[in-house]
Write a structure and sequence with these properties.
Order of helices and strands: HEHHEEHEEHEHHHEEEHEHEEHEHHE
Shape: globular
Number of domains: 3
Helix content: 25-40%
CATH architecture of the largest domain: 3-Layer(aba) Sandwich
Low-confidence stretches: 1-21, 353-367
Radius of gyration: 24 Å
Strand content: 15-25%
Length: about 375
């Protein structure tokens, strides 16, 4: 049986059993690409759009919406077109019914930026590094048809019934580099979490109803449209620490979604972004268990080297199915452990085990600092 078929069967069995595997962190799509409406295809417009596009990419990679504390960023923005590796134009869709023609520019400019150059620029500018492997945010939302009878006629919002809201959320999440996850809205969801509980922003009920998805970060939203066409409601963000609630009054779903994603990106980047301390003199030992092939060895090394908190990786000892790496850090040990928890390929082991790492510690001081112990999960 092929690996692909096996994975599909596991997902099917999980769905039939009424539960879903925990949501692993993932890389949001399109981190290095930007689409910008433009008036023409001139070189001056391209240069200005490249500046706007680069600013968006840097915001996604750092979680920082403001460059005032990072003066060197402005010099990079002035030459943003240097970092564009590909661009193309397409005609913009016509304005919808009732929309002012002036707000719809005739072209969409698609820009692609070089990932390696962008990552290097973030470090050189001294920006925080928000690792691209990010936990998905589970979204629950409900809509009430009229504010005249607040709290009645509540229904769950879906992509089929509310395509404008769905598109607005996806676009806002992409702009901020936030991966989203949508509930299945099946019978189990409706039993575990009622629409009225979402409307009430019942924190305990929302957390309980979300357990089957395994998400550390959850959003609940409730909205109604007033007689003047404005959307009124709230976003509730549940994560690590205190819940965050924001009231929204917006003319369009796009504005409401952007309000949410600004809140979510700020919370996630504050939790996971790494502020480089340079290359630290002290490092840490990382012992990976279950490395049963050369491919596993190389994959585990590449994983460690890809982490924002890691400056360098040196394989010190290979013995049986264990590899011990000496890892030089850009941040503290906790930042490294936080990053590792976001990767499906490894599992942090709760307590140090007797491993080849102990043989490498030659002094009492070294022996007092245990290795980070990982179990490798071959893909």
């Amino acid at each position: 049986m092929s690996t692909g078929i096996t994975k599909r069967m596991v997902v099917l069995l999980c769905a039939l059993a009424g539960w879903v595997m925990p949501a692993w962190a993932e890389v949001p799509p399109g981190l290095y690409s930007v689409t910008i409406p433009v008036a023409d295809q001139s070189s001056a417009t391209l240069k200005a759009a490249s500046r706007e596009g680069l600013s968006k990419v840097l915001m996604r990679l750092s979680g920082q919406p403001d460059w005032s504390a990072y003066p060197s960023v402005n010099s990079w923005l002035a030459q943003a077109d240097r970092f564009v590796v590909q661009f193309s134009y397409e005609k913009a869709a016509p304005a919808g019914a009732g929309a002012p023609e002036a707000v719809v520019l005739p072209f969409l400019l698609k820009l692609e930026f070089a990932p390696a150059a962008m990552n290097q620029l973030v470090r050189q500018a001294g920006l925080p590094v928000w690792p691209v492997n990010r936990p998905p945010v589970l979204v629950w939302w409900v809509l009430q048809d009229s504010v005249t009878d607040y709290g009645s006629n509540i229904r769950r919002m879906t992509a089929e019934q509310d395509p404008a809201w769905q598109a607005a959320m996806v676009a806002a999440a992409r702009d901020r580099g936030v991966p989203l996850q949508w509930p299945m809205n099946d019978l189990d969801d409706r039993i575990n979490l009622e629409a009225e509980q979402i409307w009430q922003l019942d924190e305990a009920a929302i957390r309980k109803g979300s357990e089957r998805y395994g998400n550390a970060w959850i959003v609940a939203g409730r909205f109604a449209q007033g007689s003047d066409g404005r959307w009124l409601g709230n976003w509730l963000l549940l994560g690590e620490g205190f819940p965050q609630l924001v009231e929204v009054q917006a003319d369009t779903p796009e504005i409401a979604a952007q309000t949410l994603m600004a809140l979510v990106a700020s919370a996630l980047s504050q939790r996971y972004a790494i502020v480089s301390q340079g290359v630290l003199e002290s490092g840490v030992g990382v012992t990976v268990h279950g490395v049963r092939s050369f491919a596993d060895h190389m994959a585990s090394r590449r994983l460690l080297e890809s982490l924002a908190s890691v400056a360098s990786v040196f394989p010190a000892v290979v013995q049986d199915d264990e590899v011990r790496y000496l890892v030089t850090l850009r941040a503290d040990r906790q930042a490294l452990e936080d990053e590792l928890r976001l990767h499906q390929q490894v599992r942090l082991m709760d307590a140090p085990t007797v491993s080849i790492g102990s043989a490498m510690n030659n002094t009492a001081e070294q022996a007092s600092v245990p290795d980070i112990e990982l179990e490798w999960r071959a893909q």
